[in-house]
Structure formats: C-alpha cells, structure tokens
Amino acid sequence: MAEKFKIGVLTSGGDAPGMNAAIRAVVRTALTNNLEVIGIQNGYEGLLNGEYRLMGARDVGGILQRGGTILRTSRSKRFMEPDGQRDAIRKMNEAGIDALVIIGGEGSMNGAYALSKQGVKVIGAPGSIDNDIWGTNIAIGTDTAMNTIMDAVDKLRDTASSHQRAFLVETMGRNSGYLAVMAAIVCGAEVALIPEVPITAEEVALAVGEAYKRGKTHAIIINAEGSNIRTTDLAQKIDDLDVGFKTRMTILGHIQRGGSPTAYDRLLASRMGVKAVEALVEGNHGVMTGLKGKGVDFIQLVDVISNKRKVNLEYYHMAKVLAR
Ligand code: F6P
C-alpha cells in the first residue's frame, strides 16, 4: 500500500448508538497503520460537498461513550442518483481519498455498493437500530435501542400495573419487526405486532381480554411502527371492545436512537471498525463487516444489498408462548 494512502470515514442514514465507537476505531487503526484519515461530515451529502477534515487520534478522544455521530449524518437524495455519485467520486479524488469506510444502514450499504461498482475501494460497517441489514447477526446500535425499549417498558409496566391498564407501546424498526418481537420477549408483552405477521385489531383485543380474565394486572402490547395497524387505531379499538383493561399508548420514537451505547455496542463497533481498516490494508474491499457466530467476517456488498434480512419467526412464537 502506498505511503500516502488516505482513508475517508463517514456515517450515513439514521444515527445509531455506537457509531462514534466505530469512527474512533477506524481513525485509530488507520493511524496505527500510518494511514491518513479524513472525517467526512454529513454522510453522502458531505461526500458530495467536500466537507472533509483530517482526523487525529485526539479528535476521537472522549467519544466512545457518546450516542449519535460526531461526523453527523444525512439521508442524501442527490447521492442516490448516478450524477450525484459521479460528483462525489470526483470530490473524493480531488481530496486524494483512496478508500472509504461507510458506517450505516441498508440504504447506506446500497450507496456503498454503487461506489464500489464504480471502482471506489469501500468497506461497509452495519449501523442501524432496526437490525434489518442482511449479512450480520446484529448491527451497531441495535442492542442499545433494545435496552432503551426495555427500560421504557419496565417503567410503563409499573404504572400499568398500578392502574390495571393495557399499555400499547410503539417501537421503531421501519419495515422490520426485529425490535418489536425481541422487545416482546424481554419485556414480557402479551402481544407483538410486526410487519412480517399481519394481525387484526380484534385478535389483539381478544388476547388482551384473555390476559385480563387470567387475572393479569396489566397488559403490554408492542406495535412495530411498520405493522399493519396504526397504534392510535389499535388503542381506540381495544377500548371500544371493552376488554377489561383501559388502554394508554406510548410512541417511543427517536428516544430509541439516542443514548450512550451499551458495552455490547461499544465492543461490536470497535471490532468492526478495526477489522474494516485492517481489511483495506490487506487489499480487501467491496465488502461489509458482519458478525457471524462470534467472529467478525466480511460479506460481499452485492450480497448484502440483494438479500432481505428476515425476522426469525421462532422468536414470534416464543413471545406468544411466554405471554401466558
Ligand atoms: O432506520 C432507523 C429509523 O429510526 C427507523 O426505525 C425509522 O423508521 C426511521 O429511522 C426514522 O427516520 P427519521 O429519523 O428520518 O425520522
């Protein structure tokens, strides 16, 4: 590898706790290998606009425990077009950037693949609370979001139980039910609604009514934002059907994206950041880091973007069994 090899690093799409730990790992591994690192601000939008700055070891000090991303992020429409990609490549060539580490979700990996097809040396690292990226058991940020949901539902259960209420909790996840189904297990919910398994409001109300009859003091219903029923409609329906519990609802929203990353996410992000740069040094690119079993592996970007990650419905079944 040439002496002056320069790596650019960016975060893109929805931020996820642990992205900072990944940036830190990329910068410090690059410096250890005598490479220059350029921090690209605002994701692909910044790549297009030339928002670049040289990063040193101290620039990533004190960020390991911080949520969000110090490089900031964006969802760039311009970059999704071939013209935008061409201009971005031109800008990075002007700045002498030889390779990129792109930390982000499904959409970001599509962008990474588009660049890689045009000859840019790219390594992706999956960062998304949704855990909807094919090729990795878990993405950076998912564990922290799960813990945030668990903490919120634990609190809601206290008040639900005191008032003998049903609480309807909406989780994020876009088109994936991963967060909702896992939350149902770790929070002891009566029902989980996920995009992958359509259900009627009547079926949900029936399950809640049954829980009331079995003597439960509260009921928790987790509704993934992408499910087939809107949270407000479902809350109304359960009240209309008079199932025993009165209903309240909470939309957790962007709270799930913030906060200090868990130990798990810090470790995962650090491992992936180190591996990404080491792979570039060894001449590997056009791939994404993915957790397979206990190790970090490399998955071809073309495979990442051509496959859809599915929720394991065994967990859906498990959540039902445990709701007795
Ligand atoms: O992909 C992460 C995510 O938080 C999804 O769960 C959610 O649907 C979306 O981003 C929200 O996007 P925005 O922050 O642009 O409203």
Total strands:
11
- How many structural domains? 2
Instruction: List bound small molecules.
Output: 6-O-phosphono-beta-D-fructofuranose
Structural class: alpha/beta
CATH class of the largest domain: Alpha Beta
Helical content, roughly?
40-55%
Q: Give the CATH architecture of the largest domain.
A: 3-Layer(aba) Sandwich
Strand content: 15-25%
> What's the helix-strand series?
EHEHEHHEHEHEHEHEHEHEEHH
Tell me, briefly, the overall form.
elongated
Oligomer: single chain
Determine the number of helices (DSSP H or I, runs of at least 4 residues). 12
How many strands, which pairing sense, and closed or not: the largest β-sheet? Answer: 7 strands, mixed
Whole-Å distance between the termini? 60 Å
State the CATH topology of the largest domain. Rossmann fold
Unreliable parts: none
Question: What integer value in Å does the Rg equal?
Answer: 22 Å
Across the major sheet, the strand order is 3-2-1-4-5-10-11
Tell me, rounded to a whole number, the average pLDDT: 97
Describe the protein's architecture and organization:
- By secondary structure, this protein is α/β, with parallel strands linked by helices.
- The chain has two domains: 6-141 and 261-306, Rossmann fold, CATH 3.40.50.450; 143-257, Phosphofructokinase domain (Rossmann fold), CATH 3.40.50.460.
- Helices cover 43% and strands 19% of the residues.
- The strands form two sheets. A seven-stranded mixed sheet has the order 3-2-1-4-5-10-11, with helices on both faces. The protein has a four-stranded parallel sheet with strand order 7-8-6-9, with helices on both faces.
- It starts with 5 loop residues before the first strand and ends with a helix.
- Residues 14, 105, 128-130, 172-174, 225, 257 line the site of 6-O-phosphono-beta-D-fructofuranose (F6P).
